[in-house]
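Handoff note, outgoing to incoming analyst
You'll be picking up this chain. Sequence as last confirmed:
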Amino acid sequence: MAKKEPIGISKILETMKASGELGQQLEQAKIWERWPEVAGAELMHHGQPRAVKNNVLYIEVDSAVWMHKYSYYKAELLAKVNGVFGELMIEDLHFVLSEEL
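Most recent structure output, in case you need it:
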């Protein structure tokens, strides 16, 4: 019986990323890393990404005034979020007040 070469952990992780939910979750984590770039200097201080469920990004906003402002920029934010991935991964944004979570 021939001995198999060991597979490196990086190769195993690459395979898991390419074919499973883990990969999608790791890709979605880029939103948190790049939030200042996505939201911009003004918005980033008043809202933060909190969760992704069923391709919807939930953004926690610190006040009703800022929720209104975020909704004004919704299409632009959605485009920027998907630009992080280079493909459509987030279908919608949902804004929630911080005390609602």
